[in-house]
C-alpha cells in the first residue's frame, strides 16, 4: 500500500539503522514528543535497533495522558449531574480521576456517551433540548480545528444547550518546558507530524533557534522515525541545530491555513495545567470571550475543584522523559490497563500502555529477574 508498505520496508529500516550506527560517536538523547510515535517505536522495537549511544526518551505527546487531573475531576462533576448528557471520545472514559473514571460513573447511571466527532455532540444537543449537552474537548493542535468547528457551528445554529469542557494543550511550549527543566537530558527532538500538518513548522524553527537543538519533523512509520533519528544524530555530531521536515507527504511549511484560522477564531492561548508536569505558560487553548457562552468550565462553576494524585504513579517523570515506564515500581503490579493508576497506562498512545502491550519489562528489552513472578 502506497505510503504504508514502503515506509515499513525491513531492508530500508535496517540500512538506516546501520547508517545511524556508523554516524554516531557520542551518547545522545533524542525525544519523540508524539504518543503515536512512541507506540510505533515500541511496537517495532526501533529503539532496540539503535546503537547504545542513542537513547530515545518518550515525551508528553499523548493528549489523554497529559489532561490534568483537575480537568478529569471537573468532567466527573459535570457528568454526574442529572440534567447533563456528557459526551467524549472513548479513550477518555477510563482515565482515572480522584474518585474513579467516567466509565464507572456511567455504570452508576450517569448519561455518559461516546461520540466520534464533536459535531455528533452538537446534534445530540439539538435532539435533546431539555438536557445540557457537554463535549469533553481535549487534544493537541491536531484535534483543535474539529472542536473549534463544533463551537462555531453551535453558535451559528443557535444551539443554546451545548457547551464544551476545553482542555487543549500545545506541543511547542511543552518542548520549551522540557528544555528549561533542571534535570533535562534531551538534546534533540522528533517533531509531531500530525500537529505540524495543522500548524506548520514555524514554531519549531523558533524553538530550534532559541535553544540550539535539532528537530526532525517525522511521521509514524519505522522509516519515517529512523530517518528522523538519523537527521538528529548527524546534526548533533556536527554541532548544528535547526528543523528538517521528513514528513512532506503530509506536512506543509505553513500548515493548514483554514484550520489555523478557525482555531484562532474560536480559541485564545492560555496557561494550562499538564498532568504529572504542572503548569506550563501559554500551553493551552480556551474559548474566546465571544464564545464563552459555550464554556462548560464557567457554566458549571467547576474551576475550584481540588485533586489527589496516586502517590505510586510516576507518569509525570515518564512524560518528561526522565524515567521509562519499567522504572516504575507499580508497573505491571498495582498499575495495569485493567487497574490503571495514571493516564499513561490507559491511552493507546501512552508510553506505559505501549510497554505493557508489547511486553517491554526493561528499557533494554531484557526481563529483570523475577519479573513474571
TrEMBL record:
The keyword RNA-binding does not apply. Coiled coil: none annotated. The keyword Metal-binding applies. This is [NiFe] hydrogenase metallocenter assembly protein HypD. Gene3D superfamilies: 6.10.20.100, HypD, alpha/beta domain 2. GO terms for biological process: protein maturation. It comes from Labilithrix luteola. Keywords: Iron, Metal-binding. InterPro entries: Hyd_form_HypD, HypD_1, HypD_2_sf. Belongs to the HypD family. It comes from the Bacteria. One of its GO terms (molecular function) is carbon monoxide binding.
Amino acid at each position: 500500500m502506497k505510503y504504508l508498505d514502503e515506509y515499513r520496508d525491513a531492508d530500508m529500516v535496517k540500512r538506516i539503522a546501520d547508517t545511524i550506527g556508523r554516524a554516531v560517536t557520542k551518547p545522545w538523547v533524542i525525544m519523540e514528543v508524539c504518543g503515536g510515535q512512541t507506540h510505533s517505536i515500541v511496537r517495532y522495537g526501533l529503539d532496540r535497533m539503535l546503537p547504545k549511544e542513542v537513547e530515545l526518551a518518550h515525551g508528553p505527546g499523548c493528549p489523554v495522558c497529559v489532561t490534568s487531573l483537575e480537568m478529569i475531576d471537573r468532567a466527573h462533576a459535570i457528568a454526574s449531574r442529572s440534567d447533563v448528557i456528557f459526551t467524549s471520545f472513548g479513550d477518555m472514559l477510563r482515565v482515572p480521576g480522584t474518585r474513579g473514571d467516567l466509565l464507572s460513573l456511567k455504570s452508576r447511571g450517569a448519561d455518559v456517551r461516546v461520540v466520534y466527532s464533536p459535531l455528533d455532540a452538537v446534534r445530540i444537543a439539538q435532539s435533546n433540548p431539555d438536557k445540557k449537552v457537554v463535549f469533553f474537548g481535549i487534544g493537541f493542535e491536531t484535534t483543535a480545528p474539529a472542536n473549534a468547528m463544533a463551537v462555531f457551528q453551535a453558535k451559528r445554529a443557535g444551539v443554546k444547550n451545548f457547551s464544551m469542557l476545553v482542555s487543549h494543550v500545545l506541543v511547542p511550549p511543552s518542548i520549551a518546558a522540557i528544555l528549561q527543566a533542571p534535570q533535562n537530558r534531551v538534546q534533540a527532538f522528533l517533531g509531531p507530524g500530525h500537529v505540524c500538518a495543522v500548524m506548520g513548522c514555524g514554531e519549531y524553527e523558533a524553538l530550534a533557534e532559541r535553544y540550539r537543538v535539532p528537530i526532525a519533523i517525522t511521521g509514524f512509520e519505522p522509516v519515517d522515525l529512523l530517518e528522523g533519528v538519523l537527521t538528529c544524530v548527524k546534526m548533533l555530531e556536527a554541532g548544528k541545530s535547526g528543523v528538517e521536515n521528513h514528513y512532506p507527504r503530509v506536512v506543509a511549511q505553513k500548515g493548514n491555513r483554514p484550520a489555523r484560522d478557525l482555531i484562532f477564531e474560536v480559541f485564545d492561548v492560555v496557561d494550562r495545567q499538564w498532568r504529572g508536569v504542572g503548569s506550563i505558560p501559554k500551553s493551552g487553548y480556551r474559548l474566546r470571550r465571544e464564545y464563552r457562552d459555550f464554556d462548560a468550565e464557567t457554566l458549571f462553576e467547576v474551576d475550584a475543584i481540588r485533586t489527589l494524585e496516586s502517590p505510586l504513579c510516576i507518569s509525570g517523570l515518564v512524560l518528561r522523559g526522565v524515567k521509562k515506564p519499567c522504572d516504575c515500581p507499580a508497573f505491571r503490579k498495582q498499575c495495569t490497563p485493567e487497574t490503571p493508576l495514571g493516564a499513561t497506562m490507559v491511552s493507546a498512545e501512552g508510553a506505559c500502555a505501549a510497554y505493557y502491550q508489547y511486553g517491554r519489562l526493561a528499557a533494554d528489552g531484557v526481563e529483570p529477574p523475577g519479573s513474571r513472578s
